[in-house]
Amino acid sequence: MISTLAGRYSPSLLSILRIYVGLSLLQHGTAKILHFPSVPMFANVDISSLMGVGGLIELIGGTLFIVGLFTRPVAFILSGFTAVAYFMAHAGKSFYPILNGGELAAVYCFVFLYFVFAGPGPLSLDAIRESKTA
Question: What is the distance between the alpha carbons of residues 28 and 25, in angstroms, rounded to a whole number?
Fold first, then answer.
């Protein structure tokens, strides 16, 4: 019974996971670039700084990921982006992600990598584009 339910709802849950992860990443970009929500450590981010460029990647990539447009290439870029973020900001503090504060960046990296191979799911602009070309 569980495997039947899993098979039935798996594509839709893939889309829901994509949307949630995209929203989670997007809030990092909006905090850095649009200053909403207001996060004290992102209050003075210069758009031309490394953190500002990261905020733009999060803002644009998160938006594309939420709507499921160019999902695979965007996921590939975001996977690499979050891997670099992990190694630049966290890995030097400790080998263990729990000690270096990098669990979220590491999880993002692997979730985005999963979407490179799994695709966006049925609730996406990519799925709509594919159905029109088929």
Answer: 5
Cα 122 to chain center, whole Å? 18
Half-sphere exposure of 79 (CA within 13 A, CB side): 14
Range of the domain at 85: 2-133
Query: Quick one: tokens of 45?
Result: 């981010």
pLDDT digits (tens, 9 = 90+) for 33-73: 999 999 999 999 999 999 999 999 999 999 999 999 999 99
Per the structure, the count of domains in the chain is: 1
Q: Report DSSP letters for 9-65, one per residue.
A: HHHHHHHHHHHHHHHHHHHHHIIIII--S--GGGTT--TTSHHHHHHHHHHHHHHHH
Residue 59: other Cβ atoms inside 10 A = 20
∠ CA(7), CA(11), CA(17), 5° rounding? 120
Full-prediction pTM beyond 0.70? yes
C-alpha 16: how far from chain center: 13
Closest CA to 57 of 96, 25, 88, 16: 25
